[in-house]
Amino acid sequence: MFIFSANAQNEQYESEDHLNKKNPLDSERSSFSLGIQDSIFIFQDKIIVTPGIRYTWIQDKLKDASSIWGTQLEGKKLKDNYFSPQTGIKYKALEWLTFKTNIAKYVREPSLFELFGDRGFFIGNSDLEKEEGINFDLGTEIQWNPEQTRLKAVALNLCWFRNHADDLIARVYDSRGIGRSVNISKALIQGIEAQASVDIFEYFRLILNATWQKPENQGEIAAFDGKNLPGHFEKSYLARLEARHQGIKVYLEFLHDKDMYYDTANLRKAEDKNELNAGISFIYNNWLFSLEAQNINDDIYEDFNSYPLPGRSFYTSIKYEF
């Protein structure tokens, strides 16, 4: 089973400064990627091996402008390209028991906001390097299809994951409370994720998910070595109820995240996050229409220090597949 994919994208970051009409932050990013992936079935489909690789080309451009002091700032162009290989193995040991593992090399370019953004209490850092790392996971899945009217299917998943990153991009703060994104030379994030899903009758599905992780700073600064990475929760929980009928799906979910720090010294601890979301979607032929409401309880939560997320928000989308 061979898959080929191609993607082209252009992003333009245009900010407006009411005190400085000649804003030096306008920027543009163009990217292009090609990917191939193959799924190989062996031993009567008991083992599936899925190798793949993706090539990415990216170009950033910062436009010419004048600084707030009137000096001329020359534009900049940055180009980069890289390969991201990956592979996965799935072994169906029994009809109800499956083992699986994945390993992948990844690259994350800093966003245009992280490079050039400015929100007063959070400023850009044009010297950011891309983040690179290796993701690895090892897990098992149990599936049970009881011959009952009420329970149609039960699935249990348990996974151990490990992410080793170089130049990890993280948000940090100085003594004034002003934040920006920086590179942490080395970081290790590892933990366990557990999930259970139950299909009830033919219309309902209950999903429970829990993640426990240790986001460890392994950078060169001795004072921060071994502390938690800023912006990463240690514990995350999700409960989701779905109802489906003739192409219509309605869901309600509750998220709870806790034990996160805003800073590398782990002195500014974030409040626990509680979020209630809901949505409805409808499939008609090849069209998918969806409407989502996020943060229904309208809590004003700071995802990072002094930068509150939106309150109650609504999103709608239309998708066509061919």
Using brief descriptors, characterize the structure shown.
Maltoporin, Chain A; 16-stranded mixed sheet; 64% strand; two-stranded antiparallel ribbon; globular; mainly beta; 2 domains; 322 residues
Describe the structure.
This protein is an all-beta fold. It has one helix at residues 112-116; strands spanning 2-13, 27-38, 40-42, 47-62, 65-66, 72-73, 76-92, 97-108, 122-123, 131-144, 151-173, 179-200, 204-217, 235-245, 248-258, 273-284, 287-294, 302-304, 307-308, 313-320. It has two domains: 1-81, no CATH class; 93-320, TonB-dependent receptor, beta-barrel domain (Maltoporin, Chain A, Beta Barrel). 2% of the residues lie in helices and 64% in strands. A hairpin with a 2-residue loop joins strand 16 and strand 17.
Provide the structure class. Answer: mainly beta
Runs in which pLDDT lies below 50 for 5 or more consecutive residues are none
Helix-residue proportion:
under 10%
Outline: globular
- So, the CATH homologous superfamily of the largest domain? TonB-dependent receptor, beta-barrel domain
Named CATH architecture of the largest domain: Beta Barrel
Beta-strand share of residues = over 45%
Distance between the termini: 18 Å
- CATH fold naming of the largest domain: Maltoporin, Chain A
Number of helices: 1
Largest sheet: 16 strands, mixed
The H-and-E topology, N to C, reads as EEEEEEEEHEEEEEEEEEEEE
Mean of residue pLDDT values: 89
Overall number of strands? 20
Radius of gyration: 23 Å
Q: How many structural domains are formed by the residues?
A: 2
Return the CATH class of the largest domain. Mainly Beta
